[in-house]
TrEMBL record:
Region of interest (Disordered), residue spans: 1-26
Domain of life: Bacteria
Residue intervals of the Terminase large subunit GpA endonuclease domain: 276-573
Family matches, as InterPro entries: GpA_ATPase, GpA_endonuclease, P-loop_NTPase, Phage_lambda_GpA-like, TFA_Chaperone
Domain Phage terminase large subunit GpA ATPase, chain residue ranges per copy: 18-267
Record-given protein name: Phage terminase large subunit family protein
One MF annotation (Gene Ontology) recorded for this entry: endonuclease activity
Protein source organism: Gymnodinialimonas phycosphaerae
A Pfam family hit: GpA_ATPase
Length: 619
């Protein structure tokens, strides 16, 4: 009896754990049969499932556990990303299955009994036991020998289980004493080059589910590129018309036709079998998902930017996300430079930020203007000679806070927020920031890794009294995920300008377009494109994404990242359209008659004499 046969005969789906409670039917999602048969196959040692959500992969894991408890007792371990996830799976998934599947009821002790055979994370049955652990608990992973190892959502596992190393490898060591061991790895993928499930799938025979066309019979892998929908007369999308088109004859499949075709599909391997069976699935195969819902999710993800699109790629298409870290060609940027007067702000710029990089013998500053849709313009590049050890150098930086740049409307603008790196001469940076105040200055510290949900965190107080009490007027530090802003900058640099840049209603550039002035030189462009995102392996053999320099100097890129962080701190990423329109209304460019009208917006305030209050703190 295979696992699928056992499930069809015995498995009962519980109402609190399934949208379709009652008798299990493998034919409901025919692709699951091949996966469960691979787990049952004695010649297969490892099964890898790289898939989207909503395809029933967790229920496959549940069937494997139930089958072995009933038909082939053995020591079983289920590994979840965290101990909390382990408890949730035990309570919400396993316990209802054990309660509602008749053949399992007598094999698992009553949870209300006091004999200790049915705990939340450890359950005994005749001939074996089930241990449920979190990947973040090294003691649980290394506790006992295991014959059947089931690892769910492996891409969400921590980098290391304490100091023991990779949790998947640690769990695999528990199976070495069994000649008939079985290892099942399941997950939706994450970032390309750093995905455990992708690496495991590439070492497998890479099976994909081929589906015959109901019209022409042509077998094909279902891909997102073949999903199409109509538009209305105004160009608006109509996701309710979404359907799948045959790659051969272009015949449209409605949802019911697609589901019927999938029931006749089969698994075909792309690589030789070496003891590891790999399976890849996306949400198009799911009998519980309509293409209308996928189309709506895609349109929402595309409008939401990288973070939401990454979620769609990972959880709906079951594919890894490629970070946009390839360095753009600086020579291409040379040809995209635009002409506007040096030191002036074009009409689209609505507020200014500055990024400051502190070096041993100089301080470099780039001033950027920002507009709606996070379009940006490089306004000024300033090099202050002398270094952080000279007071005159800091005085020039202070003077820069009161300097003005003329907007195209004639309104003078000052820097709304200046972000300065604290990585070099940290104490000197804090001292200067305390002196000028934190209303206009944000000391920052860069952290490795991607965090699009919250790429800027803080501020945290880094000054305290001897007793450890935070000082209200002490230094405040912001931490930023530099990798996120570097990838975003390179993505913006790859955008193409519109074919016609001047229309009756103004210039139309894509969201995030990065405008470069004609006065910027080749050296600055080379610094802006000085890094590359590469995949490297650490000493334990685990891959991760890392930014590496292509050339020594990269100050332009660093200053851009800091200025972008300053815009985030101001809240520009979270402003509503009404907020942007309110800000834009305060800048009126001269009309054909030469008349102008300009307000004094908060973020572009007029020049004023700076009042510096000297604190007695620090003497």
């Amino acid at each position: 009896m295979t696992i699928s046969d056992w499930a069809d005969q015995n498995r009962r789906l519980s109402s609190e754990a399934s949208a379709e409670p009652g008798q299990w039917r493998t034919s409901r999602a025919e692709y699951q049969r091949g996966i469960m048969e691979a787990v049952s196959d004695a010649a297969t040692e490892t099964v890898v499932i790289m898939s989207s959500s909503q395809v029933g992969k967790t229920e496959v894991v549940n069937n494997c556990v139930g089958y072995h408890i009933d038909q082939d007792p053995a020591p079983i371990m289920v590994v979840m990303p965290t101990e909390r996830d382990a408890e949730t799976w035990s309570k919400d998934r396993f316990s209802p299955m054990a309660r509602d599947t008749p053949c399992l009821q007598d094999k698992i002790a009553n949870p209300k009994s006091r004999d200790g055979n049915n705990k939340i994370l450890h359950k005994r049955f005749p001939g074996g036991h089930l241990t449920i652990v979190g990947a973040n608990a090294p003691s649980g992973l290394a506790s006992r020998p295991i014959r059947l190892l089931l690892c769910d959502e492996v891409d969400r596992y921590p980098f290391s289980a304490g100091a023991e190393g990779d949790p998947v490898n640690l769990a695999k060591k528990r199976t070495v004493t069994f000649w008939n061991r079985k290892i099942v790895l399941v997950s939706t993928p994450t970032n390309k080059g750093a995905s455990r499930i992708e690496a495991a799938f590439e070492e497998s025979d890479q099976r994909r589910f081929w589906v015959p066309c109901p019209e022409c019979g042509h077998e094909q892998i279902l891909t997102w590129g073949q999903v199409k929908w109509d538009k209305d007369g105004n160009g608006g999308h109509r996701p309710e018309t979404a359907r799948y088109h045959c790659a051969e004859c272009d015949a449209p499949w409605k949802d019911e036709t697609r589901w019927a075709a999938i029931s006749k599909g089969r698994w075909i391997a792309d690589a030789p079998f070496n003891g590891t069976a790999g399976f890849h699935l996306n949400e198009i195969y799911s009998p519980w998902v309509r293409l209308e819902a996928m189309a709506k999710a895609f349109l929402s993800a595309r409008a939401g930017g990288d973070e939401t699109m990454k979620t769609f790629i990972n959880t709906s298409l079951g594919e890894t996300w490629m970070e946009s870290g390839e360095a753009p060609d600086w020579q291409r940027l040379q040809g995209l430079k635009e002409d506007w007067s040096a030191g002036t702000v074009p009409a689209g710029g609505l507020f200014l930020t500055a990024g400051v990089d502190v070096q041993k013998d100089r301080i470099e500053v780039d001033v950027w203007a920002w507009g709606k849709g996070l379009q940006s313009w490089l306004i000024d590049h300033i090099v202050i000679d002398g270094g952080p050890g000279e007071q005159a150098c800091w005085q020039k930086l202070t003077d820069l806070l009161g300097r003005t740049w003329a907007h195209a409307s004639g309104t003078p603008m000052t820097i709304a927020r200046l972000a300065i790196d604290t990585g070099y001469e940290t104490a000197a940076v804090y001292a200067w920031a305390r002196q000028v105040g934190f209303g206009q200055v944000a000391p920052i510290k860069g952290l490795e890794g991607f965090n699009r949900a919250s790429p800027v965190m803080g501020p945290t107080f880094v000054d305290a009294t001897i007793a450890g009490k935070r000082l209200r007027r002490g230094a405040r530090l912001w931490t930023i995920a530099t990798s996120t802003f570097k990838a975003e900058t390179y993505r913006f640099l790859r955008l193409d300008p519109p074919e016609v840049t001047s229309t009756a209603d103004g210039e139309r550039f894509p969201t995030g377009f990065l405008h470069l002035p004609g006065w910027v030189d080749a050296e600055w462009l080379k610094q802006l494109t000085a890094e590359q995102l590469v995949t490297v392996k650490n000493k334990r053999g685990f891959a991760k994404l890392e930014w590496q320099k292509l050339r020594e100097r990269n100050e332009a890129l660093d200053c851009r990242v800091y200025a972008r962080a300053a815009a985030w701190i101001l809240g520009a990423d979270r402003w509503s359209d009404a907020r942007w329109e309110e800000l834009a209304a305060q800048f009126v460019v001269a009309d054909a008659k030469g008349t102008t009208s300009a307000g004094s917006p908060q973020l572009a305030r007029k020049a004023q004499v700076r009042r510096v209050a000297r604190s007695t703190y620090m003497g």
